[in-house]
Design brief:
Strand order of the largest sheet: 16-17-18-19-1-22-21-20
């Protein structure tokens, strides 16, 4: 496995020495999420564990192996996470407190743009020199300059916005966007116009896997998704919607950190050039560099 580039590694080391439908807002206010979850896994509140074992032997059963622990803003209501080179991009939610940030891994952001109320920020992704950011129930996607995070335009869409990633392996020369809305459906969109180009329904053992939330597209064509209000992630084949792996990410935070206000896992970013990931959650005081290994 490759580690983050040398410059990023130095930043990580320095940071360590000095010491990332149901609704996201309901989790903060004690509301009730949508029914379902990973097929057969039950609803589960914040911090619930993985689903029971399934019958399909083709689905990999994985867990996280922690490689590094990093600082994370405990006030960040994390909704989206993406790593490009040495820059970590993070989108946060809640009406009146939403933002998009860029900065070093494990360090304070160097650029931050706040969203005006009533916009509720959600997932984000990078497409070349641009960044797309979703809003939850506002029906607005915001296109930004990836370096300055300056808003360039707004595009309307129907339904809710939860997670977003850019799949560069499909959908033409520019790839395609993959978007979740808290259901079992992933919607494909044109990365230039944000127009809908198709969709796929995610299943395991022919049963819908709903509450798909924050997304991460990887260079091998896979899509990883947090399952809302659980410590489970799934890897999806976007061509068929089939779950190809289920990842148990429980136990990353201790009980004291949970009691201090940390909410559910909701942030996954692939580390470029390898098979490692960054994981964090809403109001988590830590971010973790991890590998996914067999259970």
């Amino acid at each position: 496995m490759r580690r983050i580039a040398v410059t990023a590694s130095a930043l990580l080391a320095a940071a360590l020495a000095a010491c990332s439908t149901g609704d996201p807002e309901a989790a903060a206010s004690g509301g009730t999420p949508a029914s379902g979850g990973v097929a057969g896994g039950g609803g589960g509140g914040s911090g619930s564990g993985p689903s029971p074992a399934r019958t399909d032997p083709s689905v990999q059963e994985l867990r996280v192996r922690v490689l590094e622990r990093l600082p994370h803003d405990p006030e960040a209501f994390t909704q989206g996470l993406e790593l490009r080179g040495d820059d970590l991009y993070e989108g946060t939610g809640l009406s009146g407190s939403s933002s998009v940030r860029r900065g070093p891994v494990g360090g304070a952001p160097t650029v931050q743009r706040d969203l005006p109320a009533p916009l509720f920020g959600e997932g984000l992704t990078l497409v070349g020199p641009r960044l797309w950011q979703l809003t939850w129930q506002n029906g607005i996607a915001i296109e930004r300059d990836a370096r300055t995070l300056r808003e360039l335009r707004r595009v309307r869409y129907a339904g809710e916005g939860w997670g977003l990633c850019h799949d560069g392996t499909a959908g033409g020369a520019g790839g395609r966007l993959v978007m979740s809305d808290g259901s079992s459906r992933l919607t494909f969109r044109d990365p230039g116009t944000f127009e809908t180009t198709g969709h796929v329904d995610v299943t395991r053992d022919d049963i819908p896997v709903d509450r798909l939330n924050e997304l991460e597209c990887t260079p091998d064509g896979g899509v990883y998704a947090n399952v809302y209000q659980t410590d489970t992630l799934v890897r999806v084949d976007p061509a068929t919607g089939a779950v190809t792996a289920e990842i148990d990410a429980s136990g990353l935070l201790g009980s004291a950190e949970r009691r201090a206000g940390a909410l559910e896992l909701n942030g996954i970013a692939a580390v470029p050039g390898g098979d490692e990931f960054l994981l964090t959650g809403k109001r988590w005081p830590r971010m973790f560099r991890v590998a996914f290994v067999p259970r």
